What does this fold into?
Amino acid sequence: MKKYNSSRLGAETAHATVSRFVMGCLCLSFLVLSGTSVLAQQGKTRKQAQARKNRPLDEQVQRKGVTIWSDGTRMLGDLYLPKELKKDERLPTIVFIAGTGGTKKGFPQKLGTLFAMAGYAFLAFDYRGWGESDSKLQMLDPMPEPGKDGMVTVTARAIRWQMDFSDQVADIRNAIAFVSGEPHVDSSRIGILGTSYGGGLTVYVAAHDPRVKASAAQVPGMGGGRGPKAVYRAYVQQTQRSRAEAEPVPYKTGAPGGKMSSYAHMRYNTAKGIGYSAIEAAELIKTPMLIIDAGSEELMDITKNGGLVAKILKKNGVDVTYHIYPDIAHYGIYRERLVDATKMEIEFFDKHLKTKKD
It folds into this structure.
C-alpha cells in the first residue's frame, strides 16, 4: 500500500492550472460546503434544481448537457470536455459519483472543469429522483388495464431523494454505458471518482463493472461498522414495506437524523440495501484505487471504512494508494484540502488512464 508523496508532483501545466483555478473557488467552497452542508439543501425540487445556474466555464472547456436513460427513467448529466479536440481524438474519461444530496450543478462543476483542463472527458449526472433528473414513480391506485399500445394513465407520486444503493448502482452503470458511446471517449480508459456516500458506491461498482479501469474515493462511507442488528432491521423493514405495514417507499419517513440532519430532504431506504456491501465488494477489486480520508472525520470511523478497504486491497495485492489528511474533518476535503486532493486524483488517473495498456 503506497503512501502519497507530494514531491512526486511535476510542474505540468494542467497541475499548475488546478491550483490557480481552485484557489479562486475556495471562498465560495467555504460558504456552500461548511458544516451545515448548505450545498445539499439547494435544488430540493426539480424546478429549483433547473433554475440553479451553472458556473461560468473556463475558456478552455466545453460543457454538453446529456440525457441518460436508467431503467426507463431520464437522468440529466453534464459532460465536460477540452474545447480544442481533434476530430478522432478519444480521451480517458472520469464518471463522477455523488455523495449525499450531491448534484451535477454543485461540486462536480469544479472537478469537471479541472479534469477537462487536464485532458479528460468528465461526466457528472443526477441520480434518478435527484437534482434535475426525472423522478421514479409510485402508483397510488390500482393500475387500470393498458390500451392496445400499452399506454396507461395513472395517479402516481414522484419519488425523490432516495438513498437507494441498488438503484444507484444501476444509475452509475448506465452512466458508464452512456459515456462509453460518446465520440470523444475512449471506452477502454474509464475511471470513476466518488465522494462521501458515493465513495462506497465507487468501491462496489469498481468491484463489479469490468469497464472501470481505475477508481478513487474521497472521505468515503463504506457502511463499515454496521453489524447484524442493522441487517436484521433491514429485513424487518422489507417485510413491513412488502405488506404495506410501512410506506412501500419512504416518503414521510426515513429522513436522516443526528449528524446527518442537515440532509432532512433525503430519505433512507434501508431495505433496498440488502445484499449491498462495499466492504465485501472490496475483496473483488483488481484495478488500481486511490482512497483519501480525513483524519478528524466526524461522520464515521475511517478504520472501518476507507482504511479497512485499503487494508483489504493491500492484502490482495491490488495497487492501492491510501492517504489521510490529519488536519481536516469530513467537509475539509471540499475546502482546506480541495487543491491538494484534486492534484492527487488527477495525478493518480494520469498514471493509470493516460497510457493505454496492452
In short: Confidence is low (pLDDT under 50) at residues 2-15, 17-42. The chain has one domain: 6-353. DSSP finds eleven helices and twelve strands in the chain.
